Amino acid sequence: MPSRDAGESTRPGLACRTEASIVESLPTGFVWGVSTSSFQIEGAAHEGGRGASVWDTYCEEGRVANRETAEVACDHYHRYLEDVGLIRQLGVQAYRFSIAWPRIVPLGRGAPNEAGLDFYDRLIDAILAADIEPWLCLYHWDLPQALDDLGGWTNRDCAGWFADYAALVAARYGSRVKRFATFNEPSIFTLFGLGFGGKRATADSVTLHAAIHHINLAHGAAVRALRAHVTGASIGAIHNYQPCLPLSPADLDATAVCDAYWNRAYPDPQCLGCYPEGMRTAIEPHLQAQDLSNIAAPLDWFGINHYSPVFVKTDPTAMLGFTSGQAPPGVPLTPNGWPIMPACFRDALERAANRYRLPIYVMENGFGGFDELDENAQVTDVKRIDYLRAYIAAMNAAAHAAADVRGYFVWSLLDNFEWDAGYGVRFGLAYVDYPTQRRIPKASFHWYRNLINLARKRSA
Predict the structure, then answer these.
(1) Rounded to whole angstroms, how far apart are CA atoms 101 and 109?
(2) Residue 141 in contact with residue 183, Cβ under 8 Å?
(3) Which of 22, 222, 305, 432 could form a disulfide with 364 if both were Cys (CB 3.0 to 4.6 A apart)?
(4) Which of 83-97, 192-206, 250-264 has the lowest mean pLDDT?
(5) 72 touches 433 (CB < 8 A)
(6) In the structure, what pLDDT confidence band is assigned to residue 17 with cuts at 50, 70 and 90?
(7) Helices in 157-231 by DSSP H: which ranges?
(8) Which residues are registered as beta bridge partners of 238?
């Protein structure tokens, strides 16, 4: 979608007609939210008894841009009340956050850490006091380093350790939290950690497929633990779901393989009880009796993270025979280089709705830029507003076509630590001035708040 004139969105008549049209097909009771993750915002890496995670180690090894770390990040550990106030000001009904496994179980198993548990008690109580529904994600990539030393997800025992962690979380917070996600984007942390020769140098096809299967086992075990401890629990998993597009006709086979691993390696066994056909042979050595039925514990909803499609090209030297490529010329890109193709978002929603037959919540969608404060100490992020408008319109079109989409969460509340990119890329609706930790709502913050108010009035 072409960028619009900065003043257009402020012209009352046109703005109201435009924004109303992009929410008109969304159902009554649609949930508007915003998302964060523990490692990316909390900081306090060495406080309150927190153990090390694999990402602490990765940062210490200097692998992140500019050798940056998340030791302080957004200092959310100390500033959570201010951040909950921002969420309340934004006007969303729901806030999705994650628990840091190493903060509440420093070694990943064994004795829990009461100081860490107390922090999330305070956070959840503050969220509820602000009349916001907490959506709790158990795992957003920060595996305790002590478990990784034992093989991490390549060790089948990790499924049991995760189930014990899930039971602890459920028992502690389940009287106040009803919405739970087991994992965030398992395809991404396995493919980039193991499948593409990433963070574990000794990774091979056997370890990749072992990890995929063990994470699926952990998901099923966690679902059962949550059901056992939380009356009225509403449970899902969050998948990075992106159409895979060939860069040439010669890349069609590689694209099919990419789709199996990127989009279906987790949802298919979790929701349909089987692995995608192209990877079943590789998974088979890791299967034991009842594994597939244990993985396919019934779910209440399907979480989608989506930013852009994946352009695929054949690579005979790659473990799985494919790699991602640059978008073709003419495709608009975000400042951090991701294709802007809202029609692919609509396709992803319709495909997931038809394949998995679950209510869909979009748990992440957002725009990565290099925002700076202007002379008035403000951020007028018109391109982010254009992006969000185009993608919400695509979601609205999917809902009009009968996709059962029930919620949308922007990534992210705050600028934060963006993994390998460090602090260079900003996704937040609120700008974070890292030297002072000042939070400054951007133009997109106010636009999203106004859209939510408009949508609520429409459905009232």
Answers:
(1) 10
(2) no
(3) 305
(4) 192-206
(5) no
(6) low
(7) 157-173, 186-190, 205-229
(8) 184, 303
**Is there a contact between 150 and 157 (Cβ–Cβ < 8 Å)?**
yes
* Gyration radius from the chain CA atoms: 21
The mean predicted confidence, pLDDT, of the chain is 94
d(CA 158, CA 438): 39
Which active-site residues does the annotation give? 185, 364
DSSP 426: B
* pTM higher than 0.85: yes
Sign of CA dihedral 112, 116, 118, 121: negative
8-459: what fold?
Answer: TIM Barrel (3.20.20)
Instruction: Please check whether residue 333 is in contact with residue 308, taking contact to mean a CB–CB distance below 8 angstroms.
Output: no
Q: In the numeric block, which tokens belong to residue 227?
A: 């059901």
Dist. CA 109–CA 224, nearest whole Å: 18
Q: How far is CA 146 from CA 101, 117, 172, 181, in A?
A: 11, 19, 23, 23
3-class DSSP assignment, residue 169: helix
Residue pointed to by tokens 């992106």: 242
Contact present, 429 and 448 (Cβ < 8 Å): yes
pLDDT of residue 34: 99
Residue 129: what are its φ and ψ, rounded to 5°?
-65, -25
Per-residue confidence at 74, pLDDT binned at 50, 70, 90? very high
User: Tokens standing for 212?
Assistant: 């995929």
What token pair was written down for 183? 């994992």
The answer to whether the beta carbons of residues 219 and 183 sit under 8 Å apart is: yes
Of all residues in the chain, what percent carry a pLDDT higher than 70? Answer: 95
User: For tokens 């005979």, what's the residue?
Assistant: 316
Alpha helices in 195-286 (DSSP H): 205-229, 252-259, 267, 280-283
In this prediction, residue 459 carries a pLDDT of 80
* 14 pLDDT tier (thresholds 50, 70, 90): very low
Local structure of residue 132 (DSSP, 8 states): -
Per-residue pLDDT tens digits for 157-182? 999 999 999 999 999 999 999 999 99
Bond prior to 98 in cis (omega within 30° of 0): no
